[in-house]
Amino acid sequence: MAIIILALAQGLILATVGAAVRVQYSLYRGFDIIIAPLVVLTAEAFVVAASCFPRPTILAFVVCSAVAISVGAGLSLLWNYTVDRLWRGQMVLGSAILIFSLGASTFITGAVGFGRGPGLRQVDWNLPNVHLFGIDAGLPTAYAIVCGLASCGCLYIWARRRTGFAFELWAQNQLFASEIGISRRSLLPSTSICTGILCGIAGAYGAIANGSTPEWGLTVFLYGAGAALLFPSPLLTSAIKGGLAVGALLVLSQLVFSPSAATIVLFGLITLVLLARGSSRLSQGLR
Amino acid sequence: MNFVLTILTFVFLYFLAGLAGAYTFRRLDAISVAQAAVLGTSAYAFAILQMRGLPTYLSVIGAILTAALVGGMAVGLSERTIGEDYALLTFALQMIWSGIVSNWTNVTRGPLGISGVGLQIRFGSTAPAFVYAAASAILALGILWIAHRGESSLFASGAAVVARSSELASTVGLRPLATRFQVGVASGVVAGLAGLLFALFVTLVHPSLFGIDVSVVILAISFFGLTGKLVKILLGSALLILVPELARFAGLPGARAGYLQLLMAGFTVSVGAVVFFRHDR
Description:
Distance between the termini of chain A: 39 Å
Largest sheet of chain B: 2 strands, antiparallel
Structural class of chain A: mainly alpha
Helix content of chain A: over 70%
Strand content of chain A: under 5%
Structural class of chain B: mainly alpha
Number of domains of chain A: 1
Shape of chain B: globular
Number of strands of chain B: 2
Helix content of chain B: over 70%
Radius of gyration of chain B: 18 Å
CATH topology of chain A: ABC transporter involved in vitamin B12 uptake, BtuC
Radius of gyration of chain A: 18 Å
Shape of chain A: globular
Strand content of chain B: under 5%
Number of helices of chain A: 11
Oligomer: heterodimer
Largest sheet of chain A: 2 strands, antiparallel
Number of domains of chain B: 1
Distance between the termini of chain B: 46 Å
Order of helices and strands of chain B: HHHHHEHHHHEHHH
């Protein structure tokens, strides 16, 4: 039972990151590595906010999570408007968004490291155990399950509202969406907030579970990319299924091998998924 | 004097690494984020072969061959995935490589790395710093000349067709996978030479010397030579190596100087992406 709970917690966090990767991918038709620094910066924001609270009360968690989500949404809005301004006439950004976001991600990592120096940032709270489904789970696990379920639920509801349908249509056929008046710019506010919330939840979990480091951001992004790619489907919610599957696989690999070997196994899986998916110049842009 | 020679050596070695990355892009339109892994493969192969007691010349050959093979295989994958998919694939490969060298402790000694690489090599009365600076400069300028000559070769034209469309290349009798592998081997040999000299010069190999951050620095350097004259890569290499080293020399703590280099590399890659991908190519 404990393993299932752990796999569920990991899966839900990876589902939120996977959904964030998928949202950005659908917006630009290219992988957006900005998810990595967004998750790290929201984790740092959570840690800074947590320093105002001596004990981990429910109010502290709500306030710190709200701060992390606000930072995530604000930065995501800023990022998306910048990218849209730079590549306004281009629908498929592909390599441009990947390389631009890789540069921006490295710049942010460098700026954060240059500003505050190296090291791990983590909350100073003594976290109690929580009784969950009959077992004593850690507070980060309970946080991941509650907030992960909530964010996945919100995403599911959003995907079935007007802006959600418009976004799904844009993701599937940009030319058709443009013809009926849906533009990338009109989708930016809702999608940026969506990405910000998802990254904020993942960042908050990182802050209380293992602390924030730039490497963790990149690792989580790659897991998220794996989750977004695992089940090829035009629907946004397929990233949630992918995240749950990647989370289960991660926990299983950690049990069979070791935590560090599990990372290699997961990255190997992502490599295989990318190779199996394949791409050619003729099909690029139609996916 | 030693400080100047050290900086010069690093500038030329990073130039070689950047040239290897730019070469892959210029021939096949493939942007690799795993250049540090190819460099590291060569450095680790040399260190491991030396540890096993192989003669130096055999270790050098082994290191270059391994880098060529890894480079060829990495670029060969671009037959299956292109564009941002290929860049993401190489990103994952770089992370896998880092994971393997950090965890395969009985071969690579894990995070501690292998020290004392090439210490047994003697240069008589000449100072090693001078030898490495001269060797890296000669190698860099020699390979730059060869690469410049190769720009208008028949192979470059064939690779351009392969980069455009594998299907089209097949119809005119070219072998796309073999062409991609050859480009990868050439790029791997150049990166392998840089990695080998780097390991010999710093006498140490460990995972963080060849991590994803180093790959981004190499990518930033190679961005200077994606189009136009290849010699511009030297400018990028000088900029990204000189500024952090001068900051370190001026008293900035080592770790912060490293972050300054990352900051500059990130800025260069971002600006390069905006300039290079601004309009549909």
